[in-house]
Amino acid sequence: MSSNGERFLISVLCPDRRGVVADVADVVYDLGGNLEATSQTIMQGWFTMLVAARFPEGTTRERIEQELKAAGSFDVTVRHGDERGKLPRLEGEPFIITCVGDDKPGIVRRLARVCANRGVNIDDVWNEVREGRFITIFHVTLPRDLDAKDFRYDLDAAAEELGVTLTLQHQDIFTATNSLEVHTGRRR
Is the whole-model pTM more than 0.90? Predict the structure, then answer.
């Protein structure tokens, strides 16, 4: 499909079951749409998916929503991709923040506040509690005018306050060191 047509952002939520991605993809395809980007995860038994898709001119939000709900009894939200106009692209350097510690309220809040105060964009965040231990990974973009050392200082202060262990690595270093561990089975 060409870049003609209309872009929609679609959010799907439902109890997890096999075949949800296929059901959503079928509806998009049957409506003449093309998936441009997809992010999906399962959290505590709930399936959640965010899709950017381009559809032929004349396709409506209501039609997409109706077809998806009929396909799987999904909770669906559909937004026109151009509702907010052209969004600026946030430029900068990609970094990874990892944090581990005893589970307690406020860890994500505190780290997110450090990011917000420094103008750091959180591109993706994942966290989970396992056996009382809190684990989180933030993918962030540091603005070009922000010194990573200054940001690291703020993160270290937050980590000390929270009693957690935290690392900040450029995404290239994180990927290289974690790929080495996966491929060789060796840990540094």
Answer: no
